[in-house]
Write a structure and sequence with these properties.
The complex is a heterodimer. By secondary structure, chain A is α+β, with helices and mostly antiparallel strands. Chain A contains four helices and eight strands. The chains are: A alpha+beta, B alpha+beta. The structure holds iron/sulfur cluster (2 copies).
Chain lengths: ~140, ~400
């Protein structure tokens, strides 16, 4: 239980209703939290999971899902902040509940910590500068 | 300024600036100087204190004169990148206001609207040197026959471009919360239901009017940092309200003084002038303002030593009280509390987050300090003072 990773799973039409997730628990000894879930109109299911387990098991679990046809993406790699656009106003910190956007108490600069992001999309709408890109379960590229 | 002996004049300070021996500190540095050395020594030692603020200021806009077309035209309606710009002034003059939303925007049709583009973005585009499309219509006259024009222009192609903001740099403001049971989208940001969070918008101890709460050095003609360039205070801002009650530090306990600001847009910089999209509310402009305060006497020195724990603001419910213009503030909190990241409202500890950028406000105060130290920027003395209360708090132990 020493490793955790937040991933986006994209289930295309063919695998959408296949029971795959329970195997993560049974066969790979993983614990997961469902952070976000959405079925898109183009018949694609999207799930954001936090996977917890040993590093080896997490990686094996991800490999299994990929073999079954699920696209797995690490959230932190898909999300970024446009540093030119950000003015460090702090408006996004009012809505981020995972600690991915926090202010440094000394400098009052707004820090973005992608590893804590769950792609809830809240900050994307709260940012007056449209500086947060990809942070939305529907639009994140998989 | 009458009942205190003038220890220095603006002219004397300008002489020092020209000679390169003027002592300039930021308002944050001044806190420690007044605290450790006392007011008398601070007033003697320091000549100028620089302030700064960077945040959304809706009451902003720019006068543009786009030059005559051939044949000539008396534009009666103008759109820039689809944003209507008020053209009810002379032939090729218009005013683009920060909150004017692009034509065809769904607004809050699907609530909350996103407001991707408006007058604030037009101003940013111009200042950043990007090309805009200006469309003008007219009914035609004998002297101005042209009825329609479409011009692709950059800022440098405009004959004149003047930023003119009717109300900026609000002296203190509300801390916003939401007591209703739904999320609301306001000019104070996203407020979650049942007092889940609080937002605030002030640079606090670095803010211009909180460092000169009685406007002893402020007035028409005072030269300032505006949007990355040099501007002036042109008048008191609209809604200037010096009569707001004050605390023992002379600081108003809510919104009070305001400034009207003017400057040449052509020498500004988009780092300090940014279009903003406020979800569910509209578009606006983020403006960077820095005002230098000449330390003419001990009273002024004492005021510039103010710190966040001595500045309080009212906590206001934007769920119901504010929109309906009723109710009373839910309490007072200091900027020291607000900047700590959490405050207590109605017995509940809730997170408090800013909406204006302190890092950029600091950059402005530092930049202005640098300009003065380098002898590039001299002070303008107030010609027409701002309206101020009849009585003021006394400087403790001061003369
Ligand atoms: S709301 Fe946008 S501009 Fe403001 S700090 Fe967050 S990312 Fe930066
Ligand atoms: S999408 Fe934004 S608000 Fe949501 S967790 Fe990520 S950083 Fe925080």
């Amino acid at each position: 239980m020493d490793y955790s990773r937040i991933v986006l799973l994209v289930f295309h039409q063919e695998v959408m209703y296949k029971p795959l997730i329970y195997k993560l628990v049974r066969e790979f000894d993983l614990v997961f939290n469902i952070l976000e879930a959405k079925i898109l109109p183009r018949r694609e299911g999207r799930l954001i999971l936090e996977l917890n387990g040993s590093k080896e098991d997490v990686l094996r679990g991800i490999e299994y899902l990929e073999k079954e046809g699920v696209t797995v993406t690490r959230i932190a790699d898909q999300i970024h902040r446009d540093e030119e656009a950000c003015v460090h106003c702090g408006a996004c910190t009012a809505v981020c509940r995972t600690g991915a956007l926090v202010t440094d108490p000394e400098t009052m600069e707004v820090l973005f910590i992608p590893d804590k992001c769950v792609a809830c999309g809240q900050c994307e709408t709260a940012c007056p500068m449209n500086a947060l890109i990809g942070v939305n379960i529907e639009r994140i590229s998989a | 300024m009458t009942d205190f002996p003038q220890k220095k004049t603006v002219e004397e300070i300008n002489d020092k600036i020209r000679k390169g021996n003027c002592v300039v500190v930021t308002a944050e540095q001044m806190i420690g100087i007044v605290e450790s050395e006392g007011v008398k020594s601070a007033a003697r030692k320091v000549d100028v204190v620089t302030t700064g603020t960077f945040g959304t200021m809706c009451s902003s806009g720019a006068f543009l004169n786009f030059g005559h077309t051939k044949p000539k035209m008396k534009a009666s309606q103008v759109w820039i990148n689809g944003v209507e710009s008020y053209a009810g002034i002379a032939a090729v003059d218009c005013y683009v206001g920060a909150t004017q939303v692009k034509r065809g925007d769904p607004l809050n049709g699907v609530h909350p609207g996103r407001f991707y583009y408006g007058g604030g973005h037009v101003i940013e585009d111009l200042v950043a040197g990007r090309e805009v499309r200006l469309r003008a219509e007219s009914y035609g006259t004998d002297c101005y026959p042209n009825r329609e024009a479409v011009l692709n222009m950059k800022l440098e192609d405009m004959r004149d471009a003047v930023l003119h903001n009717p109300r900026n740099a609000y002296q203190n403001y509300n801390c916003a919360v939401n007591r209703s049971d739904r999320t609301i989208y306001t000019y104070m940001g996203v407020l979650r239901p049942n007092l889940a969070n609080a937002t605030f918008s002030s640079a606090g101890q670095l803010s211009p009017l909180l460092n000169d709460p009685y406007y002893l050095t402020m007035g028409t003609g005072v030269r300032i940092f505006l949007g990355g360039g040099v501007g002036v205070i042109s008048w008191a801002g609209t809604q200037h309200a010096p009569e707001t009650p004050r605390n023992e530090r002379g600081i108003p306990v809510g919104g009070a003084g305001t400034l009207m600001l003017t400057g040449d847009l052509k020498q500004m910089n988009s780092r300090f002038l940014r279009g903003a999209s406020l979800i569910g509310y509209g578009t606006s402009l983020m403006v960077g303002v820095g005002v230098p305060i000449p330390i003419l006497n001990e009273e002024i020195a004492w005021h510039t030593g103010v710190s966040n724990k001595e500045i309080a603001c009212p906590v206001v419910d934007y769920g119901s009280d504010y929109p309906n213009a009723e109710g009373a503030p839910l309490g007072q909190v200091s900027y020291a509390d607000l900047y700590s990241g959490s405050i207590e409202v109605a017995g509940k500890k809730i997170p408090s987050t800013p909406l204006s950028s302190l890092p950029r406000a600091r950059e402005i105060a530092d930049t202005l300090k640098g300009w003065i130290e380098a002898g590039q920027f001299t002070l303008g003395a107030a010609q027409e003072p701002l309206k101020t209360p009849e009585t003021r708090v006394k400087v403790p132990g001061g003369g």
